[in-house]
TrEMBL record:
Disordered, as annotated region: 104-126
Top-level taxonomic group: Bacteria
Protein name: Helix-turn-helix transcriptional regulator
UniProt source species: Marinobacter qingdaonensis
Domain HTH cro/C1-type: 34-89
Amino acid sequence: MAKLKAVSPIERAGREHEFRIKMLRGELTAGQGLRFIRKKLLGLSRDQYSEYCRISKELLKRIEKDDDSVSLRDIKKALEPLGYSLALVSQAEIPECLIEEYQQDHPSNPPRKGDKLLAEQALTSK
């Protein structure tokens, strides 16, 4: 079984935050999200990750490339061993504080037009 790369709690928290924001904003596909987890959060090669999740390297490669022939079941096999799952999230549900925090952390990558408005609508409609 492959060993997970040791990452400091602070570094991991920052990377997890970046991952969540990018996923919520729709900047990553499911395959790109899995690759982000594998490389940036865990620091694992495809070989190591596929061994850890007990899937083939070829399947992992196809998932990360968003191959249309990959089933949802296959994606779940690659995500679940690490506690992740697929979910549908409305961008209108992104809290304002996450958008503002992302703006502060990434001034060269401002949110898309309407992100702030959508977040405000979501907060006021509750």
